[in-house]
Amino acid sequence: MRSHGDLARIGVECTGSYGAGRLRFVDNAGLEVREVTAPDRSDRRRRGKDDTIDAENAAHAAFAQIRTVTPKPRDGMVESLRVLQVTRKTAISARRVALQMIKSQVISAPEELRDLPVQQVRCGGMPRVLFRRPALPVFA
Question: 48-61, pLDDT tens digit by residue?
Answer without folding.
Answer: 888 888 888 888 88
